[in-house]
Design brief:
The chain is α+β, with helices and mostly antiparallel strands. Helix content is 21%, strand content 37%. It contains 7 helices and 28 strands. The strands form 4 sheets. The chain has a 9-stranded antiparallel beta sheet, covered by helices on one side. Strands 15-14-13-12-17-18-19-20-16 form a 9-stranded antiparallel beta sheet, with helices on one face. Strands 23-22-21-25-26-27-28-24 form an 8-stranded antiparallel beta sheet, with helices on one face. Helix 6 packs antiparallel against helix 7. The chain starts with a helix and ends with a helix.
């Protein structure tokens, strides 16, 4: 009861602190408030909300670059290419509250002296409400740390920080999106790959963190391995862009691509990636290959090696975390141990339950120490050393008389029973010590695995602690009984 009271008081204190922070937290200032907060000698150039910017038009002596927001992101208008998200964010971040460092001249001046003549870069910003702001970006000042700038309709020339305008002179490629196949892996429903040599790989999501392999074999797949495959695609980054003969697919090995990877989502169209031939160029030590998205015209040169993980042996993708439970959601564990030769008296069943973030014995008394938490983590996240068999048949694994049985139940009522059977072949660690291993499985699924001794070790720890508690309870009961007997004798 004291533990519960302490937890409740801590929660109340935390809520009080959060409430106090909420009352005094620095509020997000509006553009008008930001402008009013400027120092007397600070000259605001632009003050706007980043989210309100919808178009950026950059007119340069060598042509124009137009970035525009659409329903599916930002695009380079006229080029029909995806705009770089980092470049769009850079424009927003650098300009939304831009302040002049100094006023250089106010009135007629030699524009060429500041790079504001024929070589100037003109930038027009369009906002969601249709309003616009325009300025000319000039040359760097003699110090090289500031650039000259003049707003349209204003005769004054100012200097602003270099990072605010220096990027407008970059090449068109720097305004293009290099991460051309990015997505959120949480939205993926299925993954399929047609690979060299007629090989095929296919997975289907079956839960938030669970997958099934459909080809070339059928079995439960490892979530972390699938996320690794998805990550290889999502992280692809264009090193270069192909600008010539983009319709001649044979020239780039894309008429009969080496591989085709299709990723299906719950809320958007599929993404299909085609992998063509190598370019003959390198990015550092990495060879480059031609790649493109099936429904977009652009051909990219990206680092080769994408297929290394996809061509791994099927067993690489097999689920090894076979209990498929979250230790943080467990409500109870019923642990039975059959004993062993070293400690034959260490047998029996122990039940622990979770209440108010505390593990309790079956008597309702909190369990001291971290053993229940260690057991929950060990069993729910149990990671197999090896896969053994698709189905647990016969008695060779010892599951008919298991050494240990742990029944886990989570807060939603879902249960999982992990059984540990006979000894499997041991392994020798780098220090030369032989380590025990055991056959194990979850009864809700047919597969058999080999695990290390970690689960058994923590099971034994829990039973020892329970035995000490039971012995202590027995001693207390015996003392009370003796005291009561002595009092009864004294009354006679």
């Amino acid at each position: 009861m004291k533990n519960f009271r302490g937890t409740l008081l801590a929660l109340v204190a935390l809520l009080g602190l959060l409430g106090a922070w909420w009352m005094v937290r620095p509020a997000e200032l509006t553009p008008a408030e930001r402008k009013a907060a400027l120092k007397e000698n600070e000259k605001p150039i632009f003050v706007f909300e980043k989210a309100n910017l919808v178009k950026v038009e950059v007119t340069r002596p060598d042509g124009a670059i137009v970035l525009a927001e659409r329903a599916d992101g930002w695009w380079l208008e006229g080029e029909e290419l995806r705009a770089s998200r980092s470049m769009v964010n850079r424009v927003k971040h650098q300009l939304h509250d831009l302040v002049a460092r100094a006023s250089v001249v106010d009135g007629p001046a030699d524009d060429a002296l500041y790079g504001l003549g024929n070589s100037t870069i003109h930038v027009k910003l369009t906002f969601r409400d249709g309003s616009t702001e325009e300025f000319d970006a000039g040359d760097p000042n003699p110090s090289g740390v500031s650039f000259y700038i003049r707003k349209s309709g204003d005769t004054a020339v100012y200097t602003v920080k270099k990072s605010a305008v220096d990027y407008y002179s970059l090449s068109l490629a720097e305004f293009r999106e290099r991460r051309f196949a990015s997505f959120d892996s949480k939205d993926v429903d299925a993954l399929a790959a047609e690979l060299p040599g007629g090989k095929r790989l296919a997975f289907q999501r079956t839960g938030e963190n669970s997958w099934d392999m459909l080809a070339p074999q059928a079995f439960a797949a490892n979530d972390s391995e699938i996320r690794g495959l998805l990550g290889r695609v999502s992280a692809l980054k264009a090193v270069d862009f192909v600008t010539e003969d983009t319709t001649d697919f044979a020239k780039y090995g894309l008429d009969a691509p080496r591989a085709q990877i299709t990723i299906r989502f719950s809320g958007r169209d599929p993404l299909t990636l085609l992998l063509g031939g190598v370019t003959g160029e390198k990015d550092g030590e990495y060879a480059l290959a031609y790649v493109k998205l099936a429904d977009e015209p652009t051909i990219y040169a990206a680092r080769d090696g994408l297929l290394d993980d996809y061509l791994a042996e099927p067993e690489t993708f097999r689920l090894k975390r076979f209990a498929r439970m979250d230790p943080n959601t467990l409500a109870s564990m019923v642990t039975t141990y059959a004993g062993d030769e070293r400690d034959p008296d260490l047998t029996g069943t122990v039940t622990v339950t979770m209440e108010a973030d505390t593990w309790l014995w079956d008597t309702g008394v909190p369990v001291p120490g971290s053993t229940p938490k260690r057991l929950a983590t060990r069993v729910a996240n149990v990671q197999a050393d090896e896969f053994v068999a698709e189905v647990a048949e016969g008695s060779e694994y010892g599951f008919e008389s298991p050494r240990a049985t742990i029944v886990m139940t989570d807060r939603s009522g879902e249960a999982r029973t992990v059984v540990v059977g006979k000894n499997a072949s041991p392994v020798t660690d780098p220090e030369g010590h032989e380590r025990e291993r055991f056959y194990a499985r979850a009864l809700e699924f047919p597969e058999v695995y080999i695990i290390d001794s970690g689960v058994i070790d923590v099971v034994k720890d829990l039973l020892r602690e329970h035995r000490r508690k039971a012995t202590g309870d027995d001693e207390k009961t015996e003392r009370r009984s003796r005291i009561e007997s002595e009092r009864a004798e004294m009354k006679k």
